[in-house]
Amino acid sequence: LGSIDLVTMLREEDGEVRFDFDLLQTTVEQAVHFLDNVIDVNNYPLEHIAEMTRSTRKIGLGVMGFADALLALGIPYQSEEGAAFAERVMSFIQATGHNASKRLAQTRGAFPLFGESTLKDGEPIRNATVTTIAPTGTLSIIAGCSSGVEPVFAFVYIRNVMDGTQMVEVNPLLMEKLRALGLDNEALLKRIAQEGTIQHIEEIPAELRRVFVCAHDILPEAHVRMQAAFQRHTDNAVSKTVNFSGEATREDVRQVYLLAYREG
Q1: pLDDT score recorded for residue 163
Q2: Looking at residue 170, what DSSP letter applies?
Q3: pLDDT greater than 80 at residue 166
């Protein structure tokens, strides 16, 4: 598994934030090469695991920082534009990753079980699978970005340390916006932490509230549609949480499963 931090793909040009697809292409190509190498240098606990891994050479290149990238680009997570951007990014990664794996096959050979696989009638490819979306819980904390393809869970929260001290932790992208508006005061930040959302705080401009939505501001259906957007261009599984309100019913859960089924 390997995940690309999409925030590092952002560039500011003429005061506007843009997504650098050229850099993404280079990064994906290098990542596929790297992950294929890992299969050979890895230490496996059992020889049977080593044999199976090297027979299919499956890798799982994914992303993290997706929600942060949307925030920087001014795109609401739950919007049609957000889902369209997800498809654009992941379809690009999928196509670029598969092409990189096919080029590796020209020099290193296809994965050993290629002739027995469902891919056997196509162009030889080095890796049976190339992409997956992992949850990246710890990785995203280390990288300082949002996890996997999840929305930001909370923009402000209070961390309680062992001596009883309370530390207010703020999403850096929101903090930057609030500071520019002169709203970066402790009272407002604590209020956001207590409410868990900025949606009902009228001091914050409506456009900022439109874009800065957290996990529980998003309808369950929008969570599923975002997962579907990524899954359409991912070989393996997509890790995704669908958040419900505390009042959700069994029927609400049923409808989400049916929507997931209809979305493929």
Answers
A1: 76
A2: E
A3: no
Beta bridge partners of 238: 133
- Please state, in angstroms and rounded to a whole number, the distance separating the CA atoms of residues 208 and 215: 16
The C-alpha angle with vertex 136 and arms to 46 and 75, in degrees rounded to 5, equals 150
Four-point Cα dihedral 43, 48, 54, 58, nearest 10: -90
AA letter at 130: V
Nearest to 60 by CA among 13, 15, 94, 24: 94
Q: Which pTM value belongs to this model?
A: 0.93
Distance CA 243, CA 179 (A): 30
Tokens encoding 111: 């994965």
pLDDT band at 17 (very low <50, low <70, confident <90, very high): very high
Question: Which of 157, 145, 154, 133 lies closest to 70 in space, CA to CA?
Answer: 145
Alpha-carbon gap, residue 225 to 160, rounded angstroms: 35
Give 62's strand partners: 3
Please state, in angstroms and rounded to a whole number, the distance separating the CA atoms of residues 66 and 81: 13
Structure tokens at 78: 């739950």
- CB count, 10 Å around CB of 109? 12
Q: Alpha-carbon distance 106 to 173, whole Å?
A: 43
Pairing of strands 166-170, 156-160: antiparallel
Percentage, residues of the chain above pLDDT 90 = 90
pLDDT digits (tens, 9 = 90+) for 58-72: 999 999 999 999 999
